[in-house]
Amino acid sequence: MSELRLMKGNEALAEAAIRAGVDAYYGYPITPQSEVMEYLMKANPEKTTGMVVLQAESEVASINMVYGAAGAGKMAMTSSSSPGVSLMQEGISYIAGAELPCVVVNVVRGGPGLGTIQPSQADYFQTVKGGGHGDYKLITLAPASVQEMADFMKLAFDLAFKYRNPAMILSDGAIGQMMEKVELFDPIPRRTDEEVALQCPWATTGRKRGTQKRVITSLRLVASVQEEFNIKLQNKYKEIEEKEVRCEMLQCDDAQYVIVAYGSSARTSMKAVEIARKNGMKVGLLRPQTLWPFPSKQIETLINNGAKGFLSVEMSAGQMVEDVKLAANGKAKVEHYGRMGGVIASPQDIYEALKKFAK
Amino acid sequence: MAKVRGAVVIDTEKCKGCGLCVEACKFQVLQLSQHVNLKGYTPAFMANFENCTGCTNCATICPDAVITVYRVKETN
Amino acid sequence: MELQDIIKEENIVFKKTKLLNDKPLSYCPGCGHGTVHRILMETIEELGIDEQTIGIAPVGCAVMAYEFMEIDMQEAAHGRAPALATGIKRVYPKKYVFTYQGDGDLAAIGTAETMHCCNRGENILIIFINNGIYGMTGGQMAPTTLEGAKTSTSPYGRDVSTMGYPIRITELIAQLPAVRYVTRQSVHTPAAVRKAKAAIKKAFEYQAEGKQGTCFIEFLSNCNSGWKLSPVQANKWMEENTFKYYVPGDIKDNFKLLKNPIIE
């Protein structure tokens, strides 16, 4: 039976990890996401489900512990916030290069540098455009509620294992810290070692005599071999782009103008749409739940259905707006409105920006 | 009286001619060849087969694991 | 007795372990890496634990170790092997896990991962190859390079007043209470190789007990290419110089310090 609770976003995510049958959490404290590990340590799932929870010496170590466990076929995750996720980029690139399924959670705060501990969405580029070195993509889920913090935990692992690809939950300080009602899904038992071996024949669980050894590596010294691997990755990414786009559309059917926003920004934008509608503007909201793959086709469809312009509302200097522009491909007006440094734009601010944009 | 006799077989194409086995052999059985292998190394070979006791020192020190050692008790 | 009478299958007393494949090792002639690879694989084969063992390769000369070792392996980013090993061991506490790391990997870029892995007493084996130089990148100064030694990045010799002292990380690690077994070995003579192999065996036997406690084996190794000596000369040089600063022998066994590792 599912269970109703009032929880912080970070706590809901942690509880969902236990319920999703995650094998290991390796992390390092950082505001505003420390509740994830605090909750897990208190819940002590090692005694119930057998899930390992370990406080590492750094984010660098955490992500590499995730690499090790994921390479051995286990469901492993870590969570952090922006500066910590920057430290993890090396490991994430290696994980992508070794095609390992795992989940990284980024409860974003304002930057650059130490920045602020207030919510931000300025890590969009880092997450969907690379972050680490080399041609790779992270399946990126953007929760906009405490409910989605819980639900996306399981979804992220499902997608990561389906495609043998790292997945990122790109949240923000507001979603992580706010308390809301959440319906928690029923616990799923952790896979046994035998199930892991069956499901992940590529994983290093110990080579049985007379079988091929398994090697988890991102090293391919011969240029043609590396290129062949890059092509394989790109084909995988193409498939993910075709099949795994998720988004929510609100009042878009007759919309002339569409706000594109995710996470906390989507919540204030929702209210802005309401104000605009009351004032006679035909406005809708497109809320990407996956930032990569990005809902480009949905934007194209909206344009074909009469949308004239898209306002990308973000807590950044304008990052996702570039993907909206690429999707609109010159066929509609695209602009950015946002606040930075941890400031959340109010619905009224967004409505004013919308009026200016629609002129 | 029983005498211990030994012999080694060296994978001469994989031998890198480092000479550690020559140094390790107490009975001067091994030497480096005058000829080069396909990789351009001068591999070790048994120059004094009669002296070999099959003690495995050469194989123990060999970094490339190219030496197989044989030993037998000679009884007359 | 003729040669063909001796060279018979039934007379074999030494042959390459099955856990090393037939690929030619990528190391320079006479390099200690190959010997350590071999005795490590021999020990795993003799203990019969190959189906339960997962190895971690480093970045450095041994980056391709997984090409030669016929067991399941993971390749780590530079210095991160102990973190990978932790990640694996925690989810598979009954499997055998080892890392194989060089001095740059373990004692420079991966110092934090190494120290904290040992401080948690992860029940793994850390194999540390110390040849006092960065071999793969072409002979640069390592954290372990001896004072005065010339390398491509210390062309006038290591000046400790600006470059710091050669680090005895093994002695530092021995101080950590969760570390079970620390020893410094070498593979420069057949006798040393046999002793070193016994140390590896002991470490795996400790690991089999399934208790907290890291085992740490340092191997003093030559780098004849980097030192610009012949393999035989390099081993002699090591005995005469390296051994004075990095003294071989057991430092800690079963959590007990055997000697005060702080050397004057």
Can you characterise this structure?
The complex is a heterotrimer of chains A (359), B (76) and C (264). Chain A has helices at residues 9-19, 35-43, 59-71, 82-97, 124-128, 146-163, 173-177, 193-199, 223-243, 263-278, 296-304, 320-328, 347-358, and strands at residues 3-8, 24-27, 52-55, 76-80, 102-108, 139-141, 166-172, 179-184, 215-216, 247-250, 257-260, 283-288, 290-292, 309-314, 333-338. Chain A has 359 residues and is of the alpha/beta class. Chain A folds into two domains: 3-194, Rossmann fold (3-Layer(aba) Sandwich), CATH 3.40.50.970; 247-358, Rossmann fold (3-Layer(aba) Sandwich). Chain A has a seven-stranded mixed sheet, sandwiched between helices. In chain A, helix 1 crosses helix 6. The longest helix of chain A has 21 residues, at 223-243. Chain A is globular and about 70 Å long. By secondary structure, chain B is of the alpha+beta class. In chain B, 13% of the residues lie in helices and 29% in strands. Chain B has a two-stranded antiparallel sheet. The radius of gyration of chain B is 13 Å and the shape is elongated. The model of chain B has no long low-confidence stretch (mean pLDDT 95). By secondary structure, chain C is α/β, with parallel strands linked by helices. In chain C, the strands form two sheets. Chain C has an eight-stranded mixed sheet with strand order 3-2-4-5-9-8-10-11, with helices on both faces. In chain C, strands 6-7 form a two-stranded antiparallel ribbon. In chain C, helix 2 packs across helix 9 (190-208) and helix 5 crosses helix 6. Chain C is globular and about 60 Å long. Chains in contact: A-C, B-C. The interface between B and C is medium-sized, with 33 and 35 residues.
Tally the beta strands of chain B: 4
Strand order of the largest sheet of chain B: 1-4
State the separation between the terminal residues of chain B, measured CA to CA. 7 Å
General shape of chain A = globular
Structural class of chain B: alpha+beta
> Helix-strand pattern of chain A, N to C?
EHEHEHEHEHEHEHEHEHEEHEEHEHEH
Unreliable stretches of chain A, pLDDT < 50, 5 or more residues?
none
The main β sheet of chain B shows up as:
2 strands, antiparallel
**CATH topology (fold) name of the largest domain in chain A:** Rossmann fold
Report the portion of residues of chain B in β strands: 25-35%
Number of domains of chain A: 2
- The percent of residues in helical segments of chain A reads 40-55%
Structural class by helix and strand composition of chain A:
alpha/beta
The pLDDT mean of chain B sits at 95
Please indicate the percent range of residues of chain A in DSSP E strands (runs of 2 or more): 15-25%
Please write the CATH class name of chain B.
Alpha Beta
